[in-house]
Design a protein that fits this description.
The chain has 315 residues and is α/β, with parallel strands linked by helices. The chain has a single domain, classed as UDP-N-acetylmuramoyl-L-alanine:D-glutamate ligase. Helix content is 37%, strand content 26%. It contains ten helices and 14 strands. A ten-stranded mixed beta sheet has the order 5-4-1-8-9-10-11-12-13-14, sandwiched between helices. It has a four-stranded mixed beta sheet with strand order 3-2-6-7. 47% of the residues are buried.
């Protein structure tokens, strides 16, 4: 198995509240509540660990609420490359309704100063050797500019790492300039940064072609229940996920990234890679929390994934 680094520059304590129906402006009573140390890179790391990889996690953590994150790192056996900064790691509230709709209220993370930025770069210089790839995922905290973020990705490439990027908005726009090895936007994120409509397979293909022409090797576009499209220089493949009972969509994209990185680094056939990654993402929406919890369920979901010609889409 591979040795993989994940970077979460703006992690969060995810507080997931289950309720029947959200009624804005009224008193709402929760039915369930769970809290998880999270952030896109940490979510990816948990799935990668369940797939058998050795994982190092890094980024920035607020000193005032370290316990949930340090407990997760210890429990999972991750190598810890996080820089501690003053203040609290943000909290993100996920309001999950019975029909699967999720309303996100994302907090603001701590300020990351120049000393913390330099400390992270020094740590990465020390630990990069021996890692096969790095997954950089999530948003940018205060104090991290788009320019610095692009330089970070360039430095990771210089250190010999394959860079997989899963972000949105300013971070995705800046990250694309560094021509990462793999990118995984959803249709909305991709359309926003390119200024294009990407609602159907033809539009997705045109958008992906622009990114491939820039030097990116793998473009993976997720579209929820409409499936996943994977584009590379000689590949145009689409997977339709099985129908599942949705508990929460939080972490589905992160699980997809982990599955894709796993298959690519293992040198698996493209069909197997996309099928498993799609199944892992489908499993993620059936649960609250992150990781592969039920291998038998995952096998059933893999068997139910349908690969199609790109132009057909999912019905």
């Amino acid at each position: 198995m591979a040795k993989i680094l994940t970077l979460t520059l703006n992690p969060a304590l995810d507080i997931t509240i289950g309720l029947d129906t959200l009624r804005p402006g009224q008193v709402n009573r929760s039915q369930t509540q769970h809290s998880h140390a999270a952030g896109k890179g940490l979510n990816v790391a948990q799935v990668l660990a369940d797939l058998g990889h050795s994982v190092t996690v890094g980024g920035f953590l607020g000193r005032d609420n370290l316990q949930p994150f340090e407990a997760l790192i210890q429990w999972r056996g991750f190598a810890d490359c996080f820089v501690r900064v003053p203040g609290e790691t943000r909290s993100n509230i996920k309001l999950v309704e019975a029909d699967g709709r999720v309303t996100d209220i994302n907090g603001q993370g701590p300020e990351v100063d120049e000393a913390a930025r330099s400390a992270l770069l020094r740590l990465l210089e020390q630990v990069a050797a021996g890692h096969d790839a790095v997954v950089v995922a999530g948003s940018l905290p205060r104090g991290i500019s788009a320019e610095w973020f692009c330089q970070l990705l360039e430095r990771l490439k210089t250190l010999g790492l394959k860079v997989a990027l899963d972000s949105s908005g300013e971070a995705l726009r800046a990250g694309l300039q560094s021509t990462p090895w793999l990118v995984k936007p959803n249709t909305e994120e991709l359309g926003e940064v390119l200024g294009l409509a990407v609602e159907n397979p033809q539009q997705q293909r045109a958008a992906a072609a622009r990114l491939l022409a820039s030097g990116i090797e793998h473009v993976v576009v997720s579209a929820g229940e409409q499936g996943v499209s994977w584009f590379s220089r000689d590949l145009d493949l689409h997977a339709c996920p099985p129908k599942v009972q949705v508990a929460s969509t939080v972490g589905a994209g992160d699980s997809l990234v982990a599955g894709m990185v796993h298959g690519l680094l293992q040198g698996e056939a493209p069909a197997q890679t996309l099928t498993r990654a799609t199944a892992i993402a489908a499993q993620a929406v059936t649960q609250v929390g992150f990781g592969i919890r039920d291998r038998e369920q995952l096998a059933r979901l893999e068997a139910a994934v349908q690969l199609t010609e790109q132009q057909e889409g999912c019905r």
